[in-house]
């Protein structure tokens, strides 16, 4: 397995280009299944393992996919199978979007239950509630979700919890339903809006994405379109936090600063300077930052997906910081790794209490999941001495060329291929 070797303690200067959003791309690619005519040409797709996984799954269903750099052309008129049951399906979370997309277009699907990062219990009851409300029969048998409907009919659905996955999945199924579907208490994340925009470019009639209520007027069919995925809010947030942690001055390019407001606000509260300029922002930090409290929340609150990178920064901030992780109950698995480097953190249930130390010291640590991996890379960048980050296949699932991006701003980081 590859590993990253980092010699820490260097300030970062320069600029980092952000790629397309993972959690938008892994929904938009399966959403292309809904097009019964024409090709979907999707640009700004990040070169990450989760995207490769979804592309392999789509091919296994019979889709034709041609890729050129960050652009994929998908022809889903050639689909021959409604059953997704490869290792890739079991390995990743976003494979659940195949259920909504196949159900929407073919009124039938069999998809193995999804995998994903071990960050807590990850039920799909709200997805199922939505499919059933639209008229589908849903069964879970032998590890697969089986859905089938004679027809899908629009209705009102009020979600019991705010769920990114359920919002997008039910939206996929409802675009071709008869009549009007109203989804209430929905997720407002930028990637929910991006998927709705993509579907509208294919001919769907979806309004309200980005608010609490999404209204979908069913259409007869969808056709291919050209679309560009939004920049990755979480990748950008990770590099912003790394820049604040290392000190220096880094411009994060190709971002939508509005999507990053909760992260910018926290970094400013800690003592960093953030300068927004069109589609880029610059993070300036000089000296030790001060500790803050954080509660993760659905958008526009502080995103759970940068909680782990942020916790690394807080290990060396002045004073006490308290993190309340309200989305995923097991998203503190990286804490034991940070402790190996000298961090002073106590976890009680969903709360982590961090007392800032003067410095971290290099150690051999592992990426326990995707964002934990980013947290350990940041830890290596700020630590005294050498850090080896193992199990970096987790990082490759969501961060394109992480070592190259850090190297370009002055970090001493190399990938060792084993
Ligand atoms: N939930 C339910 N029932 C459901 C669905 C969700 O109770 O049917 C609960 C979950 O247990 C959780 C909360 O609702 O407590 C939010 O879960 P959500 O459905 O929003 O999460 P997800 O769709 O499974 C996506 C991202 C995650 C990100 C969360 C929250 C993708 C592929 N994954 O997961 O991303 O943490 O939204 O923003 O979009 C990551 O990128 O590192 C990552 C884990």
UniProtKB/TrEMBL annotation:
It catalyses: phosphoenolpyruvate + UDP-N-acetyl-alpha-D-glucosamine = UDP-N-acetyl-3-O-(1-carboxyvinyl)-alpha-D-glucosamine + phosphate. Residues 7-405 form the Enolpyruvate transferase domain. One of its GO terms (molecular function) is UDP-N-acetylglucosamine 1-carboxyvinyltransferase activity. The keyword Transferase applies. UDP-N-acetyl-alpha-D-glucosamine binds at residues 93, 122-126, 305, 327. Its main location: cytoplasm. Phosphoenolpyruvate binds at residues 22-23. Pfam families: EPSP_synthase. Its EC number is 2.5.1.7. Pathway: Cell wall biogenesis; peptidoglycan biosynthesis. It is found in: Cytoplasm. Keywords: Cell cycle, Cell division, Cell shape, Cell wall biogenesis/degradation, Cytoplasm, Peptidoglycan synthesis, Pyruvate, Transferase. It comes from the Bacteria. The active site is at residue 117. The modification 2-(S-cysteinyl)pyruvic acid O-phosphothioketal is found at residue 117. HAMAP family: MurA. Belongs to the EPSP synthase family. MurA subfamily. Cell wall formation. Adds enolpyruvyl to UDP-N-acetylglucosamine. PANTHER family: UDP-N-ACETYLGLUCOSAMINE 1-CARBOXYVINYLTRANSFERASE, UDP-N-ACETYLGLUCOSAMINE 1-CARBOXYVINYLTRANSFERASE 2. This is UDP-N-acetylglucosamine 1-carboxyvinyltransferase.
């Amino acid at each position: 397995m590859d590993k990253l070797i980092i010699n820490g303690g260097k300030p970062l200067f320069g600029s980092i280009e952000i790629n397309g959003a993972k959690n938008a791309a892994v929904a938009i690619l399966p959403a292309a299944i809904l097009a019964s005519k024409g090709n979907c040409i999707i640009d700004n797709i990040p070169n990450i393992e989760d995207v490769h996984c979804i592309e392999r799954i789509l091919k296994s269903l019979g889709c034709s996919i041609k890729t050129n750099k960050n652009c994929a052309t998908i022809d889903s008129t050639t689909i021959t199978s409604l059953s997704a049951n490869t290792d890739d399906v079991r390995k990743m979370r976003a494979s659940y979007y195949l259920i909504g997309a196949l159900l929407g277009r073919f009124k039938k699907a069999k998809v193995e239950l999804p995998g994903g990062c071990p960050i807590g219990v990850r039920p799909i009851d709200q997805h199922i509630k939505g499919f059933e409300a639209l008229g589908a029969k849903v069964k879970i048998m032998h590890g697969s979700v089986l859905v089938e409907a004679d027809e899908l009919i629009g209705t009102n659905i009020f979600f019991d919890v705010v769920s990114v996955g359920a919002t997008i999945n039910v939206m996929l199924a409802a675009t071709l339903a008869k009549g009007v579907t109203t989804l209430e208490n929905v997720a407002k994340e930028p990637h929910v809006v991006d998927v709705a925009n993509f579907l509208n470019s294919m001919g769907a009639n979806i309004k309200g994405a980005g608010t609490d209520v999404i209204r979908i007027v069913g259409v007869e069919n969808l056709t291919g379109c050209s679309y560009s995925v939004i920049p990755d809010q979480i990748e950008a947030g990770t590099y912003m936090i790394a820049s604040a942690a290392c000190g220096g001055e880094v411009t994060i390019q190709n971002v939508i600063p509005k999507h990053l407001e909760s992260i910018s606000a926290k970094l400013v509260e800690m003592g960093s300077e953030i300068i927004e300029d069109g589609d880029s922002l610059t993070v300036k930090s000089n000296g030790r930052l001060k500790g803050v409290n954080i509660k993760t929340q659905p958008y526009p609150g502080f995103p759970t997906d940068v909680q782990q990178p942020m916790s690394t920064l807080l290990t060396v901030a002045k004073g006490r910081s308290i993190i309340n992780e309200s989305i995923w109950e097991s998203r503190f698995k990286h804490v034991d790794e940070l402790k190996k480097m000298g961090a002073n953190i106590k976890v009680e249930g969903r709360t982590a209490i961090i007392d800032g130390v003067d410095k971290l010291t290099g150690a051999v640590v592992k990426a326990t999941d995707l964002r934990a991996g980013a947290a350990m890379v940041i830890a290596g960048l700020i630590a005294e001495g050498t850090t080896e980050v193992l199990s970096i296949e987790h990082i490759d699932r969501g961060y394109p060329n992480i070592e190259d991006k850090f190297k370009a701003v002055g970090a001493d980081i190399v990938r060792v291929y084993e």
